[in-house]
From TrEMBL:
InterPro entries: Znf_SWIM. It comes from Nyssa sinensis. It comes from the Eukaryota. GO terms for biological process: double-strand break repair via homologous recombination. GO terms for cellular component: Shu complex. Residues 62-111 form the SWIM-type domain. This is SWIM-type domain-containing protein. Signal peptide: none annotated. Keywords: Metal-binding, Zinc, Zinc-finger. PANTHER family: ZINC FINGER SWIM DOMAIN-CONTAINING PROTEIN 7. PROSITE patterns: ZF_SWIM. GO terms for molecular function: zinc ion binding.
Length: 132
């Protein structure tokens, strides 16, 4: 893991433990993620992050709305994957960013408890994952 990721990880853990974000944490996250963090906060403010959890396993995936007029929704794992174009282009291919705004929105919403929680059966979750 690189230094930026380690710093980000520490900040996320702090936020998760208090369920709130202070000014210092905001400025660190903004420094690390820039415009993508601003976009992510807007998505969270609009309640645009759904956490779809399978029962009984408790495994979950996030569904995050995009910001364009079309309001697409992207499935993502906060730490490892997003189905959006930016994830493949900016992160996987060019390695210029740590993660996309949807992943950030998912992480932020989960950390402060701002997700819309949706429960499905494990079977439904498996079907959903198989379509990624
Ligand atoms: Zn994304």
């Amino acid at each position: 893991m690189n230094a930026s990721s380690l710093v980000a990880e520490t900040v996320w853990k702090d936020i998760e433990s208090t369920r709130s974000v202070n000014e210092d944490q905001l400025s660190i996250l903004h420094f690390l993620f820039g415009k993508n963090f601003e976009r992510a906060t807007r998505i969270v403010d609009q309640r645009g992050v759904r956490r779809i959890a399978g029962e009984p396993s408790g495994r979950s995936i996030f569904q995050v709305v995009g910001e364009s007029q079309r309001k697409e929704e992207y499935f993502c794992f906060a730490e490892h994957y997003c189905a959006c174009y930016s994830f493949f282009y900016d992160i996987v291919s060019r390695g210029e960013q740590l993660c996309c705004k949807h992943q950030l929105a998912a992480r932020l919403a989960a950390s402060v408890g701002a997700c819309v929680d949706v429960k499905v059966s494990d079977e439904q979750l498996a079907i959903l994952l198989s379509k990624l």
